Amino acid sequence: MVRTGAGAARPRAEFAMAFTSSPRGARLARRLVSHRLDAWGHPYGSRVNDTLTLIAAELTANAVRHGHVAGRDFRLRLTRGTTTLRVEVTDARAEGVPLLSDREPPGDAESGRGLLIVTELATRWEVTPRVGAPGKVVWAELRVT
Q1: Rounded to 5 degrees, what angle do the CA atoms 142, 52, 27 make?
Q2: Span 82-107, pLDDT tens digits
C-alpha cells in the first residue's frame, strides 16, 4: 500500500493490453490510457491526464509506424507507483531504435517531432530491448507529486 494525502492508502495499480498494430489500435490505446488515468484519480482535462495521454499517443503512434511487424500486435502497460506514472509500449521490431536528435525537422515536415514532445513532457524516458522476444520497449515516466 502507498500512503498519499491525508493518510489515504493507495495500492500500486497496473493496466496492460495488446493492441492491433494499426492507427486504430494506437487510437484505442490512447483512449484507454486517458480512461484508466481518470479512474485512478487523474480526471479528464487535468495536467497529468492530458500529459500522459499525449506521451502514450506519441509512443503508440511510433510503435505502429516504426515498430510494425505484420501479424504482430504492440503492447501497452500503464503503471501507477508512489510518485510516478509510467507508460511502456512494446513492439516486435528490434531494429529502428528511436534516437533523439536535438535538431527539429524542417518547418514543413509532417513528422519527426514525437520524441521531442516526449522529451519535453516526460520526467524521463528510455528505450530498452524486449526480454524473451524480438523487439523493444519504449517507456516514459511522469512524476505526479
Answers
A1: 150
A2: 999 999 999 988 776 665 555 565 56
Q: Name residue 112's amino acid.
A: G
Q: How confident is the model over 102-130, as pLDDT tens digits? A: 556 556 645 556 888 999 999 999 999 99
Question: Distance between CA 39 and CA 20 in Å, rounded?
Answer: 24
Between the alpha carbon of residue 64 and those of residues 24, 27, 121, 142, the distances in Å are 10, 11, 21, 22
Length of the chain: 145
**Exposed (0-12), middle (13-18) or buried (19+): which is 39, by Cβ within 10 Å?**
exposed
User: Long-range contacts for 27-33 (Cβ within 8 Å, ≥24 apart)?
Assistant: 29/56, 29/60, 29/74, 29/76, 29/89, 30/56, 30/57, 30/60, 32/76, 33/76, 33/78, 33/87
Number of other CB atoms surrounding residue 96 within 10 Å: 13
